[in-house]
What we know:
The structure holds two protein chains of two kinds. By secondary structure, chain A is of the alpha+beta class. Helix content of chain A is 22%, strand content 29%. In chain A, the strands form 14 sheets. In chain A, strands 9, 10, 13, 14, 15, 17 and 31 form a seven-stranded mixed β-sheet that branches. A six-stranded mixed β-sheet of chain A has the order 43-44-45-42-36-46. By secondary structure, chain B is of the alpha+beta class.
Amino acid sequence: MSGSRTSQGGVIDRARTMNFTFDGRSYQGHPGDTLASALLAQGVVLFGRSFKYHRPRGVMSAGVEEPNALVGVGVGGRFEPNTRATDLFIYEGLVAQSQNRWPSLGFDLGAVIGLLGRFLPAGFYYKAFLGKPGLWKFYEHFIRRAAGLGRPPTEPDPDTYEHCAAFCEVLVVGAGPAGLAAALSASVTGERVILVEQDCIVGGSLLRDMVDIDGQPAQRWIDQTLATLAARGARILTRTTAIGYWDHDLLTLAQKLVEPGQVPAKRQAAQRLWRVRAKRVVLATGAIERPLPFAGNDRPGVMLAQAVRTYVNRFGVVPGSKAVIATCNDDAYRTAFALADAGCEIEAILDSRLAGQTEIVRSAVARFPVRFEAQVLEAHGSGAGLIGITSMVGGRNFRLDCDLLAVSGGFSPVAHLHMQAGGTLRWNEDTGAFAPETSRQNQVTVGSAAGEDDVRSSAAALSPPEGVDAKHTFVDFQNDVTMADIDLAWQEGYRSVEHLKRYTTLGMATDQGKTSNIVGLARLAQLEGRPVPQVGLTTFRPPYTPVTLGLLAGHATSKHLAVIRRPPLYNLHVEQKPIWLPSGYWMRPRAYPVGDESLHAAAMREARSVRTNVGWVDVSTLGKFEVVGPDAAAFLERVCATTVAKLAVGRGRYTFMLREDGIVMDDGTVWRIGPQRYLLTSSTGGADKMAHHLAYVRQVLCPGLKVAIANVQEHWAGIAVAGPKAKAVLADLAPGLEIPRHMSVARSEIAGVPVLILAASYSGERAFEIYAAGSESVPVWRAIATQGTDHGGCAYGLEALEILRIEKGHVVVGGEIDGRRTPHDLGLHRILNPSAAYVGAPALQRPALQSSAGRLRMVGLESDRPIPEGSMLVSSIPGNPQGHVTGAGQRVMDDGYVAMGLLRDGADRMGEQLVAWSPTRDSMARVSVVEPVFYDREGARYRD
Amino acid sequence: MTAKARAIVTDAPRFHLQPRQALLRLELWGNAAAVGTNFAAAFGVGLPAASHAVSVGDLRVIWREPSAWMVAAPLAASQDLSAKLTEIAGPDGAVTDISGAAVRCTLTGPDWRALLTHGGVLDAEDPGFAPGCVAGTIVEHINIRIDVVSEDQADVYVAPSYAVDLLRYWEEVVGSLSVKS
């Protein structure tokens, strides 16, 4: 094949040139060129090597369906493999390289695999890699090296990606003549219209066939239509592909703001993912031309006929000097005329049909050698190029010399989005193709995508000629699936099209079988002796074309991977340089190390400070709800599994909440802070769930109660002050305050800020939770820190908090409250409200929950060595797990280690000796099963 | 190798955090019509309908959810306002101070709507989403409430814990938007 540039014509800017490299060699092209057109114009025919057999491959198409010409583009973190050269518009400085070859594209040692092709049939992997499981480790090394198309980038992607939402009355996908006309029509009434086009310019097939439309030259009509749409406020998104059609007419669009590998302008994103909700969707996605089956149909120089015409008319590139056209329809004849007009010699037109009498055929017969009932048997190559073909005409074989073979096996409407939307297809015998039939959503398909083109073809044309070499007749070019592979799969019993796909990998590459599926399907139908529609179709799944992972991730990368919630005292903590711990979305201090203290050392120092003097911790993230109204107590009696109604004003108590199935969902405290006003606290991690639960109980279970619920989680910042000197610290902070006794409420001012003081203990020491408005909490913390330090105390973080709560035996959500525990399992049944009016009470009566036999129940564990957290509890190593450790730590003031755990029938096994064993961490500890309270069992320390 | 990206053409919107203000939640459990009448008598306008907000002097009354409104007011007016609303609600509702539960960020510029299309799921460009309209939605996984104050301004209420991340996200988005002039 000897491609060349015409002297004029095409939709490229011939006045300007751009420099780029391919495999290190410099080339030039014009703005508007694709990498494929620019290279073809300069005689390049070899673009890459095939995946399996490393066969030389060139350009087959001129669009996104390209299976062969895949390149890697860009450098460093912007390197993108498997980019279609036919869908990559060149830019100054573009760096592209071929794939799947070593050491070079021209001389690829991997091509030796092609010689072994007979040993690599369909299902090779399933048949070859058998044996003992250990052998897989041996195979895996080689398989992993051989697997995959292209190589991923090894550096982080420096670009950003955006996610945008858009809404419209009409979304038109595809800006060919049908799409443009649809958008024009839809925009008349002033409705919001979005028109998307995957190409960099609109026009679709009009760019290939510069026909007159509405009495005007195509380009003038396109320009006029665009101007009208713009004037009517339509949004036109070019370089944008509709990659998915989801429920409720939601479509996702992938917009390339720069070409792959290109450096975006400063602060600009590289790509944008649109989520578009449309009232109506018009799919004008066109049709894809199909190749023909014959030996060597994958050689460089064998191209789809419409693609050839596109290169000639749009890009001014003639991809050969002597061409043969092989077709089963009239459309390919236009390619012959286009090529001839551009100076290419037409060696022959081979038409598999009987002699036709259409106007274009008659014109062709008058100008070119046209052979009817003619098919290509084999394409011959020399090196990487095409040198001729063997054709079969009327039962006789002929050899024809050519460097370009333009083929057309008919057209497959692009029905991917229609099918993703839940539509159905009908088989059209006249065109030999599936076309959209009924729509499940509010969408319609128009133009070529609807099979409306008057191009008659048939599935029979997709059958290879008698005597063809099936082993070299390719069906799926990207995955090197041959006709022989399909035949073999069928012989081995793979009759379902879905099984065939998975066994042969037909249609499973990055092109998802856009050019191959229907050919493979036709072969299966032929083997089965059934009509094509009875054989069935594989599933059309998003995305329509490959997308980068960056596009899907959008903004959520690196430091933005997840949202961070910052408590009101966050900046103050930052000053103290703590070790941070993500707690849900919250970022909380885990410990405040001094000097080069380790986490453990810091946490133990902080915990000892709480046990001996005083400590203060930020508890702002706790869930907090104000429940107000004459029925507030009644409401809380439904939400909480403990009694609430008898709570006096100014008093509080521990409580916990059940799901409707009787399982403990969260715990906290409830405080009566006014005659009809309560404050309910819950865990940090469960706060959002609790908000939903309260709304559910209020609106669904108790709609008649006179109660109002306000989520004040972020309104109140909380600081817990704990330790034997906590009371003294509070007295210094609020002189004159009558210090509230345990589980009582007081109001005061600290540092001039109004505060609510709840006397509650989580650590086991005398403690107070001091709440202030979040925006005013910093001076409160500073005042506490000043006074606390004077009393020999220090701030403490979550690590110390955890150690202290384990020693005291308090349950925690995510640890002991694991979504499967009943109150009985956790020893909370003793404080259940006897009236049993709370949510979850009926479910607790179920026999399975009534019997505790065999259930995991909370226990304490003691050891003289560290107990591995999360380890399993066994009688001996190895052994069947009987439970697990939920939280573990070192005793704060004494020697030894303690833990909480869930153990089968645990409450009845006090005194047993077990082993806490973590084989994954290779650690263990012998433990004694004890009551889950290790410190101040009488509760004397938190009472005055 | 750089290229001028095809960006959304817009007058880059501006945004800034407003000073702290009082936020009171008024929630009714019954007799909404009577409370509405009381409210109208006291303030000259009725409680806004669902998904709407009204201004009354330096107060902004924003619908939150069925039978619940958020009243934004200057901090100094907090206690008096709370008492007044409590009186209006009478035995049919309650008032709770939630001043610390949200911060207000004001978006200005004719194309503030373009900013809200980023990372979100709301039809912020719907002409029907006009001044006086309110919507709750998410932007980049962050729950926000939008109060359209005028064609050129919208107030966004967000929980303080999320504010830093939201503003950082918007700073990046605004930087990527082209400026018309």
